[in-house]
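Tutorial, part two.
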Amino acid sequence: MITKEAVTFLEDLVANNNTDWMHANKKRYESFKKDYHNYIASVLAEMKALDKKLEPLEVKNCTFRINRDIRFSKDKSPYKTNIGVWMSQNRNSKNAPGYYIHFEKGNSFIAGGCWCPEPNELKQIRKEIAYFYEDLESIVNDNKFKSEFGTITRDENNTLKKAPKDFEPNHPAIEFLKLKSFTASEKLEDNLFLEADFSKIVAKKLIALKPFNDFLTRALETED
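Running the prediction step on this input gives:
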């Protein structure tokens, strides 16, 4: 669970997103960071019991820095005002499939899969889909997957208008092949994160993504 103190810290940070405030509240930030790490440890313990590929992960592998990268952003606020947790099946790979938990007041959700793979990785995933699309269809049509996540995320930023190069436009899996990211997500109520058994609840939800992640991992590990 996320502590009420951590939530209050984020609320105050939203209203005071500047370095002077952060320096003046250094002790509160240190306490927030401790709560953040305890929260990750709790979730990670539940997830490791369900997905053995997460066994090598430590808390430090699942954290995000609170500092924002503002080099190319119009928003120059220096700090993030959300809590993110990323659990990847391969901690040494930038785009390895994994599970994500996001707490942000009014915009909390869980997600997983492979977001914005590099061009060579995207090609590998598409080749796997082209040859084994029935496997993917079986995964996303599974009742557990559908009840939690509906389907794979599709939007105008994530989907090509035409068939990708080297793939037939009439391929049975063309709608999967047009995707540029392979993720699924589910919105959550903010209050759920404050529940004492949150880690068990969220792990039970996230594990529905394991077959999806396994398919994507298989694609990325397959040699040409």
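The first strand starts at residue 83 and ends at 88. In part three we will examine how such features are distributed along the chain.
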